[in-house]
C-alpha cells in the first residue's frame, strides 16, 4: 500500500509546487 501512496503524494506535491511557484 505504501508503495502506491508515496508516489501519488510526491506527484501531487510536485504538481502543487509547479502550479503555485510560477504564480509568485
Automatic annotation (TrEMBL):
Organism phylogeny: Eukaryota, Metazoa, Chordata, Craniata, Vertebrata
Transmembrane recorded as keyword: yes
The UniProt record lists the keyword Transmembrane helix: yes
Transmembrane segments: 5-22
Stored Gene3D superfamilies: Neurotransmitter-gated ion-channel transmembrane domain (1.20.58.390)
UniProt-listed GO biological process terms: monoatomic ion transport
Domain of life assignment: Eukaryota
InterPro entries linked: Neuro-gated_channel_TM_sf (IPR036719), Neuro_actylchol_rec (IPR038050)
Source species: Osteolaemus tetraspis
Protein name as it appears in the record: Acetocholine receptor gamma-subunit
Record GO cellular component, one term: membrane
UniProt KW keywords: Membrane, Receptor, Transmembrane, Transmembrane helix
Amino acid at each position: 500500500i505504501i508503495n502506491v501512496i508515496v508516489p501519488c503524494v510526491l506527484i501531487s506535491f510536485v504538481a502543487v509546487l509547479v502550479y503555485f511557484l510560477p504564480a509568485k
